[in-house]
Please model this.
Amino acid sequence: MKLGSRWLPWLFIGPALFLVGGYLVYPTLNTIYLSFFEVPFGPRPEVFVWLENYEYAFTNNQMLIAFRNNLLWLVLFTLLTVSLGLILAVLLDRVRYEALAKSIIFLPMAISFVGAGVIWKFVYAFRPAGQPQIGLLNALLGLSSPQFQPEAWLIDKGTNNFALIAVGVWIWTGFCLVILSAAYKGIPRELLEAARVDGANEWQVFRKIIIPAMSSTIAVVATTMVINVLKIFDIVYVMTSGDFDTEVIANRMYKEMFLLRDFGQASAIAVILLLAIVPVMLVNIRRFQEQEATR
Amino acid sequence: MKSISRIWSRLPLHLLIIGLALLWITPSLGLLASSLRPARDVLSSGWWTILERPFDLGQFTLENYAAVLNRSGMDRAFINSLIITIPSTILPITLASFAAYAFAWMDFPGRRALFIILVGLIVVPLQMTLIPILRLYNHLGLAGSFLGLWLAHTGYGLPFAIYLLRNFFGALPRDLFESAFLDGASHLTAFFRLALPLSVPALASMAIFQFLWVWNDLLIALVYLGGTPQVAPLTVRVSSLVSSLGQDWHLLTAAAFISMLLPLVIFFALQRYFVRGILAGSVKG
Model:
């Protein structure tokens, strides 16, 4: 045993553990605690209210809209990013300009959600009929059909959530593509060729060989997207600030915190968000343990 | 003739890919083009009208950039973003390197349990931490300070950074470390002379990740800095311009492009490391 070798590991991990404890572990526990209290703004003491904050969270109309929107995001966003990423991973492998196309799809990952929000708010820009449309979407649709009436995409409650989800898909598809493409290139080419020689068509190869071979990577990518979608905040904050029924859970929490100054209710909302993520957390831990076992 | 029929049969594939690539790049090009057009043009016609006379450089101007840099405080915000991001990148990577080395090459009680907790913490929503930290910051006077933000980004970034670097350190050849220890090398020597130099690519990936993550962050800055213009980074500034400038697209597009400038440079210069980091973080695990 070398001198100090018992203390050295703790010197190495100590500062990191201290900050992780202070910024993640302690606040998480504290938020769970606060979610059972009414937290007055100012120095007055907290009042224990048992499940009242949760009751509010599951009955308040704004909250229900936020839940509905998050569910819509969860299904559409996850489905679209993962399937577009998968299809592109397979298709791009067949063209010579793969690297360039990949860079273009991947590019939005580098910029902020705020920047992406401005880019797309401009695409969706709306002018009343008769005026020149400066938003790309209304202009294009107006060009394709003379009867088309310009649409306020971010205000109309039938379209606004979809318009926001499209921005999310635009940002994250590149992430899915990069990972899925690496996994696709890891499938032995002989496997695909053998199936083709045996008379399988491209669709059968895709369904029967490519998808099963990539299933674990698809699962990893999909869980990553689920985590992203549950925490989604910036896009909605910048583009609609949650108006016109576009609010999601994270935005609702921010509003409870800063507009209504209700820390108890905001804590309850955060806990609900955490509970939604716990299954993913357990899956990640199990996956990690399996990998360790095969190391 | 075979090649022509081959081109024909592959035409739908090319059209689909090129179509999607155009769909992906056009909105960003629209933003860039609009930021370079005079206000009256931006507000009276679509940006695509520049394609009617693409070589007429007289239709472009830099006055929008001058306007947002001076009047809208984008210059201050750019500097704030740098002040926030640089320490928030260096600090977590330094601390994570030490911790990751310990998790990979040192033996201590609770090593496995602690690491599993860290893996679990990677996905904890930040929303869970905002209220207690903000209350603490208000108490300590750290709200609205750069120091508070540096520490917060470090705490939030550490679990993933430790996880990524530990996997990388752990994958280095065991013989290398064993023979170094046999030769009497201490852990400190092995860390500085072996683990770090051999992990430059992983450290670079991690640094790019963390840099972009902090540079692009809105929520944490919004909550802990409270939107005061003196300390607001670009994301906070641009998002407040979105509500105050409303339909002044010539200014908004210029401001948004300024906020993307550095991430775009990093993306194009260091894309390889960026991609490698993403792959290491999610596939190999």
